[in-house]
Design brief:
heterotrimer; A mainly alpha (about 375); B alpha+beta (about 400); C alpha/beta (about 260); B: about 400 residues; alpha+beta; MetI-like fold; 4-stranded antiparallel sheet; two-stranded antiparallel sheet; globular; C: about 260 residues; alpha/beta; 10 helices; about 40% helix; about 25% strand
């Protein structure tokens, strides 16, 4: 070996890496690397070629974007294209349901409030007391705006709270109130006192073992029976209670996972410092446990958001219920596919972004954690 | 407490018991007593209110209604049923419908999910992306919406029988449902079933023999292919030996409907499709993360030892991956079973549907809902218990 | 003392190293995308020879030995192991891997199998050995690495040093012609390094052909016939231990030695 200095030898420049760039190389590596893959690629391309052009033709090329009623729409497209005019005509109904037409600025503001609160909660730097304060204020404002009756706003019965605002309210309030309940259940399940543990386990397993529909039925039908004679309870409130009780059980299991993951040494250190059980839990254990399970918590919220669509079985009209009612209009018959695609897009946007957010959080947490 | 006159020579000093109000044991008991008392008090309060309300509204109590005549029809049923049967039988019909859809759904969702999960890991970019689109799309849309979509398509968009869609030869999709050919009932089917069972048993025996032989002499035996050949081949042999007497009952158009073949309702089809596609997406993700969870170093060590790709998968990667996959997949099976209760929104007569009708007719909500919850709880607990047993049996043993 | 040690060592190696080359690398190049990770590697390892590869991290030393049993693919050049050329031909690859044993930095024992099962897995399924024979051989090798009493335990129940010794025994059960070691002691706590190095020294003394990537310079001095210094993908210097440590020729080697030996 020569006494090599730090200069590169000129010979190195004549040697080039094999072509890994360029379309041909990429195709070979990714789509046609062996016989099996090549066959799969051809099969997939065949299916795409069969399926995509007709869909594009239906959804874009032959589609009708404005028409006065269903019949005209169908005539205009020759019954071969999508009728997006339906969405245009019905969008306010789909989003807000039977909420009084002139007051629909109120639910719009409510949706905005929720979006702002959810967006603000994504930023980790703002987690803490101010954020909780923001949520309290935001929720209060949302309820005042939706219900009215004070501050010069006309009163709107809860049965008219339809569409997207209802979905958001049920999901968010269900999780928000279910959260402290879930913490108590999780702590109770890990308690050393057998009676407490037994009752918490029984509740959690009972609620997790039955479908949400039965919990909704139970709340809707049985809650009025549980209350003293003469006391009535609002239908929306019944559904909300059902969601709270249901979320609490699932959140309890997620939080329990977090509690189990906190190293035992933390409890011992807290005890050694002389902290009581509640001090230790509040100041040391819970903060760590909760930060460990934020991704699963977000996933639970995504699930709750999707589950709100079930309130249709007890006669409440959230986003899904509103779109079904819209489809019942005699003047616009048979546009199920367009309607469901539109609503699916709304749900998908919310859920997809939340799940991406949760994946991003998971990656960040794994980075900061020494494995 | 100071000194015993018993055999021990040393003084046994025990710590002094603290006063009861500082004694954690006593405090614990007191707290529990109060807690249980509060729960019981709440329970009594609720029960008292309920009884009072039910009496005021003249609602009967007790499960006696189960013996009364149901007086409503059920659209589809696995067992014979007529409106003259009792409510109890109606519940049974609902239960069998639920189990039918659940079992079928679990099997199909597992197949679809495993396939899609492996597709997500494929080296083929196109397959990977398509699988990803499938998973992301169907995981982020509520199941209720998906059910409405499939059902709406099958009930309202699908044409009448005369213009039915034909995705495969002799398979028709119309607004009456999906009609497909079935083999006509014939004794040879029973013999084929017997041959199938014999094939399974023979495969199991061959596997034991092959293992023992390999341990003894080192020679491997292609158990997998042989077993497959037996399980498929024996029934086929029986069919051939009988002279191929099977005829397919092919549906054909008669007037405005099909006759022949078998038709499954749009409700059942939509429910099954929705459940399978939705749950399949979740299972796909679980399978994918399970396989990824196995350290790449394990594959490398297996490669370095000279194991072939198949042996690597079978002996090293899959056993470890399954440990990670099975608990969440069991959870998804539970979810699928519970989600089958969404049948009520599209009118498939599952347990919840039937119970709902019953409650509407008899007004006995408490009993009806309790029945539903009891059944689902029983199913959930059974599946949970089996999974816990499995988990304990295969747990990796560590310090 | 160093003098007599290396004298006796060179005597034994002279007797043990025979002429036929076990491993040949000719003009080997490898790229990760545009990054040239191995540049013009030329190497010959004869039967019975012990080669130690050292160098700063990122120098490509692990990549190079992983090319020898095709855990990594080279894009240019030739690699010939025991007369078989390594290409994408799967038959050649499997034949090579039967003859080349590898010990990993993170042991990579199979956690769902006992120690004994870890050792018998490959002989049973790759060499088609009957189980009794495989288990006998396994126990023999467990005895040699002095860990026979842990045969029925699971890897999760063993310490790091114990696991690595099991990993060495697992490779030996395939009766390889060559043993590759990829930083075998880098993941061990200090008090366990010696037990693993002792096993490797015994192996070397029995005449095994070894290529070892390691930072343990004491081991290199004792065991190696040739020490390779790699930096930025190239073999910068290659020499017997005496010459390497006492009279390094390249500036880069001198820099590396000053960093690694200055405790």
């Amino acid at each position: 070996m020569t006494d090599a200095t730090t200069q590169d030898l000129p010979v190195a420049e004549e040697i080039r890496p094999p072509r890994t760039h360029g379309i041909i190389a990429w195709l070979r590596a990714n789509l046609f690397s062996n016989i099996f893959n090549s066959l799969l690629t051809l099969l997939a391309l065949y299916i795409l070629v069969m399926a995509v052009p007709p869909l594009v033709r239906w959804g874009l090329v032959d589609a009708v974007w404005s028409a006065p009623n269903g019949q005209a729409c169908r005539a205009a497209s020759g019954d071969a294209g999508a009728c997006w005019a339906f969405i245009g005509a019905k969008v306010r109904f789909i989003l807000f349901g039977r909420y009084p037409y002139d007051e629909q600025w109120r639910p719009s503001v409510v949706v905005l409030i929720f979006l702002v609160m959810l967006g603000a909660s994504c930023n980790q730097r703002w987690w803490g007391r101010p954020l909780i304060g923001l949520w309290v204020v935001g929720l209060a404002a949302a309820f005042i705006l939706m219900g009215g009756g004070i501050l010069g706003l006309s009163a709107v019965d809860t049965l008219l709270w339809n569409g997207l605002p209802l979905t958001l309210i049920l999901a968010v309030v269900g999780m928000a109130v279910g959260f402290p309940l879930g913490i108590l259940l999780a702590l109770g399940r890990r308690s050393k006192l057998p009676a407490v543990r037994a009752i918490c386990v029984a509740y959690i397993e009972l609620v997790r073992g039955v479908p949400l529909i039965t919990v909704l039925f139970m709340a809707s039908v049985m809650l009025p029976l549980f209350l003293p004679t003469g006391v009535t309870i609002d239908k929306l409130l019944r559904a909300q209670v059902a969601f709270i009780l249901f979320s609490a059980a699932y959140l309890a299991e997620v939080i329990r996972g977090g509690l189990q993951a906190v190293p035992k040494g933390q409890t011992e250190a807290a005890d050694a410092l002389g902290l009581s059980y509640w001090q230790r839990t509040r100041l040391i254990i819970l903060p760590q446990a909760l930060s460990l399970v934020i991704p699963p918590l977000v996933n639970t919220f995504i699930g709750a958001f999707k589950d709100t669509s079930l309130v249709i079985v007890i006669g409440l009209f959230d986003l899904l219920g509103a779109v079904n009612t819209a489809l019942a209009d005699a003047e616009w018959q048979g546009f199920n596919i367009e309607a469901y695609i539109f609503v699916a897009a709304i749900y998908f946007s919310f859920c997809f972004f939340m799940s991406r957010y949760s994946q991003m959080l998971e990656r960040e947490f794994n980075k900061n954690r020494r494995h | 407490m100071a000194s015993d006159t018993a055999a021990s020579s040393a003084n046994v000093l025990r710590p002094k018991r603290p006063p009861p109000w500082n004694d954690p044991a006593v405090r614990g008991i007191v707290f529990q007593v109060l807690f249980v008392a509060a729960v019981v008090a709440l329970g009594i309060f609720l029960v008292h209110n309920t009884m009072a309300n039910m009496e005021r509204q003249h609602i009967a109590t007790g499960f006696g209604f189960l013996g009364r005549e149901a007086a409503f029809g059920i659209g589809e049923s696995l067992i014979p049923y007529s409106p003259a049967d009792t409510y109890a039988r109606a519940f049974l019909v609902g239960l069998t419908n639920t189990l039918y859809v659940a079992v079928l759904g679990i099997i199909l969702a597992t197949l679809l999910g495993t396939l899609m999960g492996l597709a997500r890991l494929s080296s083929n970019w196109l397959i990977r992306k398509l699988a990803q689109i499938y998973v992301e799309t169907f995981r982020n849309i509520p199941l209720a919406l998906q059910l409405f979509f499939w059902w709406g398509t099958l009930r309202y968009v699908a044409p009448a029988a005369r213009q039915a869609w034909q995705p495969l030869p002799d398979v028709f999709v119309s607004n009456r449902g999906v009609t497909f050919p079935v083999p006509q009932s014939h004794p040879v089917l029973l013999w084929m079933l017997v041959a199938f069972v014999v094939g399974v048993a023979a495969t199991w025996l061959i596997r034991r023999w092959a293992r023992a032989r390999q341990m003894r002499t080192g020679q491997p035996f292609p158990t997998g292919w042989t077993g497959l050949g037996l399980i498929i081949g024996l029934p086929v042999l029986v069919l051939l030996a009988a002279g191929m007497p099977l005829h397919l009952d092919i549906p054909h158009l008669q007037g405005f409907n099909f006759s022949g073949g078998n038709t499954v309702s749009p409700e059942f089809t939509a429910l099954l499709m929705g459940l399978v596609i939705y749950t399949g997406a979740f299972i796909a993700e679980i399978v994918r993360s399970g396989i990824l969870a196995v350290n790449w170093g394990q594959s490398e060590a297996a490669m370095a030892l000279g194991l072939s790709a198949g042996q690597r998968m079978r002996l090293v990667v899959l056993p470890q991956a399954l440990r990670v996959i099975i608990p969440p997949v069991t959870s998804q099976y539970l979810n699928l079973t519970k989600n089958s209760s969404l049948a009520v929104i599209i009118g498939y007569p599952d347990l919840v549907s039937v119970a709902n009708t019953t409650i509407n007719q008899t007004g006995q909500a408490v009993e009806g809902i309790s029945l539903i919850m009891a059944v689902y709880l029983a199913i959930s607990l059974t599946i949970s218990l089996s999974m816990n047993l499995y988990n304990r049996a295969v747990a990796l043993i560590e310090r | 003392m160093a003098q007599t040690q290396s004298q006796t060592q060179s005597q034994t190696t002279a007797a043990a190293v025979s002429g036929a080359p076990m491993i040949q690398l000719r003009g080997v190049h490898k790229w990760y995308g545009d990054f040239h990770v191995l540049t013009d590697i030329n190497l010959e390892v004869r039967r019975g020879e012990k080669v130690v590869v050292c160098g700063p991290s990122g120098s490509g030393k692990s990549t190079m030995i992983r090319c020898i049993n095709r855990l990594e693919e080279h894009q240019q050049g030739q690699i010939i192991v025991n007369g078989i050329e390594l290409t994408s031909d799967i038959k050649n690859i499997e034949a090579t891997r039967r003859e080349v044993g590898m010990v990993f930095q993170h042991f990579n024992l199979f956690p769902h199998l006992t120690v004994l099962q870890n050792l018998t897995l490959a002989p049973i399924w790759v060499r088609k050995t009957p189980r009794r024979e495989a288990e006998e051989a396994a126990r023999h090798y467990l005895q040699r690495v002095r860990i026979l009493e842990q045969a029925e335990k699971y890897p999760g129940q063993l310490s790091g040093g114990q696991q690595q010794r099991v990993a060495i025994a697992r490779s030996l059960c395939m009766k390889p012609e060559v043993m590759l070691f990829d930083e075998p002691t880098s993941a061990l706590d200090p008090e366990m390094i010696k037990e693993v190095l002792d096993v490797m020294i015994t192996l070397a003394e029995e005449g095994m052909t070894m290529v070892c990537v390691t930072h343990e310079m004491g081991f290199a001095r004792t065991v190696a016939d040739t020490i390779l210094f790699m930096d930025r993908g190239e073999i910068v210097e290659r020499a017997p231990p005496l010459e390497f440590f006492n009279n390094p020729k390249s500036d880069r080697t001198k820099l590396f030695l000053s960093q690694i030996l200055a405790h």
